[in-house]
Amino acid sequence: MTLPSASARPTSPLPDRDQPGAVELAGVEKTFANGTRALAALDLAIAPGELVSFVGPSGCGKSTVFRLIAGLAEPTAGSVTVMGADPRAARRAGGVAYVFQDATLLPWATVRDNVALPLTLRRVARRERRAAAERALELVGLADHGRDLPRQLSGGMRMRVSIARALVARPRLLLMDEPFGALDEMTRQALQDELLEIWRREAGTTVLFVTHNVFEAAFLSTRVVVLSPRPGRVVADLAAPHTAPRDDAFRATPAFAGLVGEISAALRHGGGA
Amino acid sequence: MTVARRLLPPLLLLAAVLALWQAICDWGDVAPYVVPSPSDIWTAVREHRADLLTSLWTTTREAALAFAVSGVAGVAGAVALSSSRVVERSVYPYAILLQTIPIVATAPIIIIWFGATTTAVVVIASIMAFFPVLSNTLVGLRATDRRLEELFELYDAGRLQALARLRLPAALPYVVAGLRISSTLSVIGAIVGEYIAGIGGGEAGLGFAITQSAIRLETPYLFAAAITSSILGIAFFQLVKALSRRLLGSWHESELAFER
Questions:
Q1: Quick one: which of A129, A229, B14, B220 is 20 to 30 A from B53 by CA?
Q2: Smallest CA–CA distance from B166 into chain A, residue
Q3: Is pLDDT above 70 for A271?
Q4: Three-state DSSP class for A70?
């Protein structure tokens, strides 16, 4: 099977920089029912096609930001806009996908059925569903495992299935909440490479990525947002354009080391780490 | 381990116990109506073969029907109860209350309402077998992985979709656990129902056979009927076990082999 090129995406035309931003948060605050202030006056604009990492100490509200963007929660104050629309509307249009820290697969369903789940729930026709699932599995290198059950796969492979499921509906916004946190370093690096490869191929896809890992953030991102401890606010917003290819050699460059240093400094400055 | 090697030790023990039992009855000069020897029981089985088969068939039919009714009603009831917290909180206590009323009190009422019929027996057995399915399924429906629920919300799954594709499959191990308990309870319930209803003749079940042989002091036949009841219960249980292996074998921990 040949991979369709970026131009073969009839349902989601390539967004350009003049279009509404991928995600816009304006004065967003979130206070939970128990009185915990998770977020305080968060302002953030993310352009289409960016790969943004969110770094911050545990409990700084990173996951809350994601839940607001996915429309799973409502902000207490301020506004959240996703691709120029309300988060729920953007989600319903099929433009948003979410990857959790755990693979979160249905244990009784085959890998292929798991990957096709978003389409199944939207009542997409069987044949179309199957083709899309095969394609997504190909993207994450699991084309031969469609008939396996999740328990037959390793942790890294399960996470790949989870990513394939997120990609199956061709989202324009991919939210990844510490997806590689539970994996060993080798697997983690392999999946980082794959994520970059997918992000390049699926041109125009915006990826938001939560991580604890400063090196991971520096390696992947075009931009790193550092958040403070609760209530979360932006401490630093670092640009990291992909001028050099992000491969193993990049980890040894001064640019990488510099970025790691900057992020770490911002974390210390923000009172985290 | 092969089937033969697994079955051999319990079968050897059974043979030893039977031999000892026979020996004590033969040489201890015990009256057959007090403790019948295995050969007395075997003779009773052969003498009453037609009656015993009729009884077994009647009880099997009743128990199977009661098992089906309790399974369907238990799962449907649990789905209904879990649909809203308010419904669950208001109805569930009464389900427990009903469960605590002894069946020997419930059964005569059922017979007053339905008459001494096989329908009454099925109702009695269903009441007895229903609760384990209800309570187990309810626990299963509540124990759905929260992340998976969020995932379904994220993809805008409807309530029915979430039920059919997530909550029911996730509850399946619990449903099966409930069915295992209710499989033996439906047999016991049918026998208790027959015992109390006292239906004789062509519709006589194992419960009636037990009552009659006890009254007539036909102890060997009493033993035969009791052993037949137990075999029926074991058969039901094994059937559900096979079902469980079929439904959960590929994915659930409870049915997975140890080797990995």
A1: B14
A2: A106
A3: no
A4: coil
Domain extent at residue A164? 105-170
Domain contains A249: yes
* CATH code (residue A180): 3.40.50.300
For B82, the domain range is: 66-248
Find the CB nearest B156 among A106, A120, A121: A121
Quick one: tokens of B202? 């062509």
| Domain assignment present for A28 | yes
Q: What is the pLDDT of residues A158-185, one digit of tens each?
A: 999 999 999 898 889 999 998 888 888 8
pTM here is 0.80
Distance, CA of B128 to CA of A71 (rounded, Å)? 46
Counted domains in chain B: 1
Residues A115 and A163 in one domain: yes
Do residues B162 and B146 lie in contact, with contact meaning Cβ atoms separated by under 8 Å?
Answer: no
Total number of domains constituting chain A:
2
**Selected residues 48-107 of chain B with any CB under 8 Å from a CB in chain A:** none
pLDDT digits (tens, 9 = 90+) for A17-27: 445 678 999 88
Q: How many CB atoms lie within 10 A of CB B230?
A: 14
Phi, psi of B2 (to 5 degrees): -75, 160
Check: complex ipTM more than 0.95: no
Six token digits for residue A216: 């991971």
- Which residue, among A88, A98, A106, would best test binding to B if mutated, counting the most B CBs under 10 Å from its CB? A106
Across the A:B interface, residue pairs with CB atoms under 8 Å apart total: 47
